[in-house]
Amino acid sequence: MLVSSGSMQHWSYFYSISMKNFLLLLIPLFLILQIPVFAQNAELAKLLALPNDTLKVQELAGFAKKMVHQDKAASKQASSALLQVSQKINYVKGMAIGYSYLAFIDLESGKHAVAADLYNKAITYYRQAHDERGVAKCLGNMADIYESTGQGDRAVDARLAAVAILEKLLPTSKAPEDVMHSLAIQYNNFATTYADLFLNNEKAYTYLKKAEAICRQAQDTSQLIDVLGNLTSLLTEEGRVKEALTTGKEVFRLSKATQDNFHLATGYYSYGFVLNAMGQVDSAVTVLRQGLQYANQAKSDYRIFKATHLLALALKKQGKYPEVISILEQAYNGVAEDGALKYKSEIAAELGHAYFKIGNYKAAYQQLEQRFLLNDSVIQLANNQLIAEKETKYQTAQKEKQLAQKELLLQKSRQQVIYAIIFSIFALLVTAFIWVQYRNKRRLHKTQLQTLQQEKEIQLLQALMQGEEKERSRIAKDLHDGVAGMLAAVKMHLSVSKFEKQPEGYTKALELLNEATTEVRKTSHNLMPEVLLQYGLDAALNRYCTNINSAALQVNYYFIGEEQRFISSFELSVYRIVQELLNNIFKHSRATEATVQLSVREGVLSLSIEDNGVGFAKQPGQSGGMGLESLKRRIRTLNGNMELSTEDGGGVSAYLEFSTAGLQLKSPEPKTQFV
After folding, report:
1. What mean pLDDT value characterizes the chain?
2. Domain boundaries, the chain
3. What are the transmembrane regions (predicted)?
4. In the 3-class helix/strand/coil scheme, how is 322-352 assigned residue by residue?
């Protein structure tokens, strides 16, 4: 249809007027949308202006918790501020809250490594504040990190520890609703662990019903939404569609009543999950699209992945593969580098299938190859072979285009080229075989020499350590039986003597003798600790840390796990290593506080030693001084390893781990009497 120039001018003028009016309408609309942001910023600024005290910390904590699902940036700013204030006023509980809030924000963003480090710090401060519920909360979130990174056993251990703490606190808690809320979270996450990692739907169902009962008893709607959402998915997968539909409708209704994006994403996802399973695909797609919008508004990576994945499955049933590819790629590109590998793997698999359906075999192959890199065990061999065949066809088609142009030129020389190639390949194979044999012999010889050298070094170190302990034992006995005995005898003689002329000097002499006797006894016990021989490593380290406490250096000691005895030589060697590390802290670190944590679990004994001193600056290519290298060699002789991290001015953190296989005692060793 043709349009005259006059008509064009008319429409151009009308368009310019309309655009001006439209822009004028956008300005107040933009300002209206910014009102909540301005209000939040104003509220945070008001809180930051408060004086630095515990009340300010509590107010900032409430704001950070309120904003965590609405505005993560504002929540993070408030959490960082409350941590800084707590550090300034030395408020231990506030420091624990700050670290845990920051960790949760990083966990929601998929930054698992950063979140794990922050949770470990939070646990340390919660324990100092004697807040067991805070410890349980952090352990539960650490279990989420282990689960997301495929460490199922560690996830279960952390979750069990959290549940044990909460179940112990519940009967005597002054705020049972809070404890029940935390316990419901752990039961709910336990169900997820059993369903996703161990494929045990029966146990998952048991824990979900326990979580549901607690939520209904405590009238905890927010947590009940999550629990019923997982229950809906489980019932659907088990084929119990009628029950799943009833549960899904309840989740949908409860989430709409909250008007919270976080809960709305869960409600729409659960309802859409059931509709899709029932074959009501069009309705499912409508519900899931809305659920994905709520998940994006909540900025929750986990819910975004779940909603995207399920929406893609529903769209596949409608044959809308381009849209499937679009939403999956958008979700995949939003994943943090160190997190959500399980979800990335699932998305890569779905992308591969979608690309295959539209005939883009190369892209399909690349996506499934990426899935293998992320999670080899998830992809079946048959799918891999199918994609490999399609890729081969694709590559062959490309080569045939090039070969067709050169075929005429190669016909005359093809036979000669083939003979030359065969001869070259044969020569290369013979050469490679000879070279591989020679390299393997050299490698085997080098390995044997290294093994002999390591064994010799270990034997020398063991002999040296045994000699040192024998000498310590001899000196301890000499001090205890010799010098201590003589001091006791001198004290006895002085006690029965009478010094009438100088009573003050006499009293001072007795006091000095008492101090000397005490110092000799303490020295002899440090050289050969009786507590270690009689009661084991936990009691000995606890006693030692208590004894070296002073106004200059506060040493805190913690123990995790079940008390267990090991052979005496191993316990004594570990005790000496801790003594040496603490001695280095006392001499060189200028620290005011140090922490020693002993952990014993099946087959592994680990130690964590940290201080808040000045640290030390390491030069490039250096791993430490001679003393540190000697200590590392001693640790290697005990089948252990040590990781040391430090920053100049930021303290030193040492982590030691030993394998205890074959070192456990079935019955306690005979106790040595050493008074």
Report:
1. 78
2. 529-659
3. 417-436
4. HHHHHHHHHHHHCCCCCCCHHHHHHHHHHHH
Q: How far apart are the first and last CA of the chain?
A: 111
Structure tokens at 308: 């995207």
pLDDT over threshold 90, residue 556: yes
Q: What is the pLDDT of residues 253-266, one digit of tens each?
A: 999 998 888 899 99
Is residue 90 over pLDDT 90? yes
| Residue 644 bridge partners (DSSP) | 654
Report yes or no: 540 and 525 within 8 Å, Cβ to Cβ: no
* pLDDT reported for residue 495: 64
Distances (CA, A) of 391 to 277, 325, 363, 630: 33, 19, 9, 55
Query: Residue 529 and residue 548: Cα distance in Å, rounded?
Result: 14
DSSP per-residue string spanning 341-405: HHHHHHHHHHHHHHHHHTT-HHHHHHHHHHHHHH-GGGS-HHHHHHHHHHHHHHHHHHHHHHHHH
Question: What is the pLDDT at residue 657?
Answer: 94
CA angle centred on 204, ends 198 and 205, rounded to 5°:
150
C-alpha 636/C-alpha 570 separation (Å) is 12
Q: Two tokens at 107?
A: 């966990």
How far apart are the C-alpha atoms of 304 and 330, rounded to whole Å?
Answer: 10
CB 349 within 8 A of CB 312: no
The class of domain 529-659 in CATH terms is alpha beta
Measured between alpha carbons, how far is residue 615 from residues 576, 606, 666 in Å?
22, 22, 41
Examine the pLDDT at 240 and tell me if it is beyond 70: yes
Taking residues 151-160, report their average pLDDT: 82
Q: Is the pLDDT of residue 249 over 80?
A: yes
Going by C-beta distance under 8 Å and a sequence separation of 6 or more, which residues neighbour residue 609?
A: 578, 581, 582, 585, 594, 595, 596, 597, 653, 654, 656
Tokens 């992809």 identify what position?
A: 379
- From CA 641, how far away is CA 630, in angstroms rounded? 13
| Overall pTM surpassing 0.85 (yes/no) | no
Tell me which H or E stretch contains 590: none
CB burial of 577-606 (b: ≥16 within 10 Å; e: otherwise) equals bbbebbebbbeebebeebbbbbebeeeebb
Provide the pLDDT for residue 404. 60
Contact 652, 615 (CB under 8 A): yes
DSSP string, 630-663: HHHHHHHHTTEEEEEEE-TTS-EEEEEEEE-TTT
Q: What tokens were used for 66? A: 């309120």
Tell me which of 475 and 444 has the higher pLDDT: 444
Among 527, 560, 526, 521, smallest CA distance to 543 is for 526
Residues linked to residue 558 through DSSP beta bridges, in sequence order? 597
For 165-174, 187-196, 500-509, which range has the lowest pLDDT when averaged over its residues? 500-509
* CB of 341 closer than 8 Å to CB of 301: no
HSE-up of residue 90 (Cα within 13 Å, Cβ side): 0
Amino acid identity at 388: A
Helix (H) or strand (E) holding 199: none
